[in-house]
């Protein structure tokens, strides 16, 4: 559906764990979803980032799959107009989880980003995960509003169902 509405859209899909990243990559491959995975040594990672930032259809440049567990912090992925958080981040505290999610979203919301960035989440309604996601999201928007007020940062678009 996204490809039909926004053929040039680029998506960053975040998962927390390497094992889950492998399973998601397998599912994307099985269903023919073109993607690139940020993994390997410095050279392989740099090539994956360049494919994503500059690549076209057929070059793996539409969707980048990243693991929050091992992806280099500070990576600039401003080609993305969509960020997908596959699940709520699990961390030692609520604050640490929200900070990790904010850092993930921040990969696309960098200086030079000219697009509106939409944030998506997969949530199973009526579960504990839904409550955790809602709490994370509430704190994320509060932090983005504070950052916007103090630094002029662009606020992402909330694409989560209400």
TrEMBL record:
Any Pfam family: Helicase_C
Entries under InterPro entries matching the protein: ATP-helicase/E3_Ub-Ligase, Helicase_C-like, P-loop_NTPase, SNF2/RAD54-like_C
Top-rank taxon: Eukaryota
GO molecular function: hydrolase activity
SUPFAM superfamilies from the UniProt entry: P-loop containing nucleoside triphosphate hydrolases (SSF52540)
Organism of origin: Polarella glacialis (Dinoflagellate)
Domain Helicase C-terminal: 1-152
Lineage, uppermost ranks: Eukaryota, Sar, Alveolata, Dinophyceae, Suessiales
Protein name as it appears in the record: Helicase C-terminal domain-containing protein
Record has Ribonucleoprotein as a keyword: no
Keywords: Hydrolase
UniProt cross-references to SMART domains, sorted A to Z: HELICc
